[in-house]
Amino acid sequence: MHPNQLIDSHRHQGMRRQLMLQLRDKGIKDLRVLEAMNLIPRHYFFDPGFVEHAYQDKAFPIDAGQTISQPYTVARQTELLELKPTDKVLEIGTGSGYQCAVLCAMGIKTYSIEYIEVLHRKAGLMLDYMGYHPTLFLGDGSKGIPLYAPFSKILVTAGAPTIPQLLINQLTIGGLLVIPIGDQKQQRMFRFRKLANGQVEQEDHGAFSFVPLVGQQGWR
Ligand code: SAM
How far apart are CA 206 and CA 220, in angstroms? Predict the structure, then answer.
């Protein structure tokens, strides 16, 4: 959709508020996350003709066989990051740019990397149009971005086969990695915390379903 055609009508805003209430009922507790998601017109990230799907709690196809994540998943992953204003976040899998917009709306210094050129380009145009200026990269994010490391939080929005050690290496002490790990259909959402002694603490936050993480530390 051409940015000039984008309208965030009262109807869209009303549907968005309803969606936020649903997310709260499904267990999302961090009000800062819900407030940020309530600010972002999710339908801007959909192709024209499909905007009616934007305010359902569902993942939806975007270009190149990829998906914009389900709103509940975006809210839950963002909540698990326990964000603070001083955080420096790396998102792996820019996709549509929606999750990135939510992080930017929360005032977080955001870096995001996407493997597929058309998605990287479209997301960049939309984020720019919305007035957000994260640092965007095109490439294999499964290796992280060593040149810009360390990050206090890393968020992976595609399903990994194993824990990518290179991402743990790029976390600050006390930093968090939120990542779905499993097979190519179903994963468990893990949160890893890097401790001062170099050890890593792990928590399992339940079943989710993502498109596969590809690349060196992903599915090849
Ligand atoms: N966060 C996105 C959003 O808000 O629309 C949803 C992302 S979609 C579920 C997963 C994305 O991860 C896809 O766009 C895919 O191309 C990307 N991806 C998969 N493997 C990747 C890799 N190694 N590096 C960077 N991006 C990758």
Answer: 25
User: Is the separation of the CB atoms in 101 and 40 below 8 Å?
Assistant: yes
Question: 10 Å Cβ neighbour count for 57?
Answer: 13
pLDDT at 52: 87
Does residue 214 have its Cβ closer than 6 Å to ligand 1?
A: yes
Q: Closest ligand 1 atom, CA of 62? A: 5
219 falls within a domain:
no
Instruction: State which residues of the chain have pLDDT below 50.
Output: 4
Structural domain harbouring 109: 59-208
What are 97-150's pLDDT values in tens digits? 999 999 999 999 999 999 999 999 999 999 999 999 999 999 999 999 999 999
For ligand 1, the distance from its centroid to the CA atom of residue 10, given in whole angstroms, is 31
Q: How far is the CA of 97 from the centre of ligand 1 (A)?
A: 10
Ligand 1: atom nearest CA of 143 is: 23
Indicate whether 44 belongs to any domain: no
- The pTM (predicted TM-score) of the whole model is 0.97
**Which atom of ligand 1 has the smallest separation from the CA of 212?**
19
Report yes or no on 99 lying in a domain. yes
Here the CATH number for the domain that contains residue 118 is: 3.40.50.150
Calculate how far, in angstroms, residue 22's C-alpha sits from the geometric centre of ligand 1.
25
Residue 23 lies in a domain: no
Q: Does the CB atom of residue 82 touch ligand 1 within 6 A?
A: no
- Split into its structural domains, the chain has a count of 1
DSSP per-residue string spanning 147-176? GG--EEEEEE-SBBSS--HHHHHTEEEEEE
Catalytic residues: 69
